[in-house]
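Bench log. Compound arrived from synthesis this morning; before running ITC I wanted a structural hypothesis for how zinc ion sits in the protein. Inputs:
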Amino acid sequence: MGRETLLIILLLLFGGVVTQVLVWFPLPGLHHKTQLRNAERRAWLRLWLPLIPTFIVGAWLCGWALQEPDPVHDPVDSGILITACLPYAMIVARAGFRAIWSLLREPVDIPICTVGFLQPRVVFSPLLARRLDEAQLQAAWEHERAHARHRDPLRIWLAQIATDLQWPWPSARERFTTWLEMLEYTRDEEARVCGASGVDLASAILATLRHASPALRAQNVLHQGGVSTLIGDPRALQRRIARLLAPLPRQDDTATQTGVGSKALIAVLISTLIVAYALGVMYGEVVLHLLFAWTWSL
Ligand SMILES: [Zn+2]
């Protein structure tokens, strides 16, 4: 069997088993007293946690493949390996298809949104802009600018892929929905810190929702296809409006601390991937040989 083919099969096999098990692992809830920006970061991390072991195993397997001859001597019957990895291969194919389809399909007519992955831009419907007063327009603009600053269209697209890789379990979808809700709260708060009034932002959201087509209001399409919107998820609208009408929470330097925390987390992850890769180079063949011998003896 070709080395790269076996690498993909093993990655699908290990990744599939680990992800499908970890998606059931209970994660600590988001504390309601946590600073909003921290809560959004934690919700984002909770979405990716079941996939992180797959990335580590992937790095380890890449290290193993580096020192393997091509083609590889089949450790076990290739038919068994292919059959075993088929279920997760279908999940990955589904996730890939949905990710591509969300980019290629006819764009949904969203009155105010942010689009674009690397250089996001804010899009306003001229019809809606005429219906909003200056303060509402400014509030909506600040909300969307916050989405653009954090490249949220790209993050939403990636989060959708992460959720699809944990299909079909509802816990992954719940974590995705929770993160989206936190994301909108955080961007609302950021807009208010930048000078927007909570009342103006709430009235801009309601006006946008009234202006949106019934199809848009009814469908859960607002966060698919790498688009972040002013409306957010209509199902969370009541809680969001209540937050906007409440006084703005006291701001402290937690945001800076979170930025440092995120960078530290990324550094730890990259270091772990490098170590896993090195271990794959050194011990990959021995470990895989033992693993296959043990599996075959069962
Ligand atoms: Zn938004």
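What the model suggests: The chain has a mean pLDDT of 86. The pocket of zinc ion is lined by residues 143, 147, 184, 187, 228-230, 232 (CB under 6 Å).
ITC booked for Thursday regardless.
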